[in-house]
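Let's see one such:

===
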Amino acid sequence: MRKSFSGLLAFAIVLTTACVSKRKLLDAQMQYRTLQNDSTLMASKIAGQQSTINKLQSDIDALNKQNTQLSNDASSKVNSLQQNLQAQQKRLQDLQNLLDQQRRATSDLRNKMINALVGYSDSDLTVTQKNGKVYVSLSEKFLFPSGSAVVNPAGKEALSKLANVLIANPDIAVTIEGHTDSIPIRMKFEDNWALSTARATSVVRILVNDYKVDPAKVIASGHAWFDPVDTNSTPEGRAHNRRTEIILTPNLDQIYKLLEQ
């Protein structure tokens, strides 16, 4: 009887031990599968994170490339702007040099005219400098009889001295302008336009035909009474307006060429 109980007890122990081992095995298997699932999920997350990292790195590389390109473009534009600025500064300096040269040439021409026409009174003629030009203004009474376009001997003598300066300076352009007062003409000329133009033309003919000034450098024009220097409401003012102006312009070709660049 005692042996039978001992056998049963041993069998129960063996059976219990077997059940415990099997349960541990099952638990271990479940833990293994859980770990496998966790590992797979983790691997998937890692792969996703790596993909994100790769995308971010690609974006960073693209931005770095774009930044490099923008930096190069900006540097190129800065260099271009600096070159343009330097070119403009040189152009402005060249223009300033030409303007200074032209101003000196005009002042020198004025002095030559003053020296050539020394001895005449201011009421007969004046020499002034303005707007880069030299103006020689001769009064009507000095050049012409009233209402006439025929230059008198004193006027011809003054024109001969002026012509000598023009011939010695062939680059000078010459404009002869006739001016009258506002009193209408009632003699052989149709109107003040005709008289002012005829007087300018008479001066041109003397300079060109008698004193050999280059005709290609000379222009004649008449302004009648529409460009006064004084009032036309007084005898003195009208006398100032009745004048012939010889306008001398130094050669400005270099300045014009520079401005066209």
Summary: The mean pLDDT is 86. The chain has six helices and five strands.
